[in-house]
Amino acid sequence: MLLRLAYVAVTNTFAALWLLPMGDRDKDVEILALRHQITVLERQLGTGTRVRFAPEDRAFLAALLTSLPREVLRRLRLLVHPDTVLRWHRDLMKRRHARTCRPKRPGRPPTVRSIRALILRLVRENPSWGYRRVHGELTTLGIKVAPSHRVGDPQTGRP
After folding, report:
1. Which domain of life is it from (predicted)?
2. Helical pair 82-100 and 55-65, crossing angle rounded to 10 deg
């Protein structure tokens, strides 16, 4: 009993000394991360499986812990490897970037009506030209159009 008490006292002393060089912000982040991990563990109590983090848990821990320097992150008591947390953060940023960079209207942008009329006129007046020749002529005029753009039926002029 006395030996156990001495062991606990010594380990707690070293734990307190370990916290001295850490700033208040780092300590607060560590406390929040530990509390969140306890919440995750309590949620899965009695399931008998390994710990599974939900996407919202991953996002919270990634956002919280990436502000810490890597050496501080490695000292923390985490249920996952610190590199896993950094990967979660990279995935989170990748999804956010992909969402903000997504075009408003997917697909090919519509051709301006005047250019469309010019293409139809070229096709009507030169029935032997193929789409490559029409595209070449438009490029010569400085008009940018996709080379395989459908222009419609040359007889009717309709798409």
Report:
1. Bacteria
2. 100
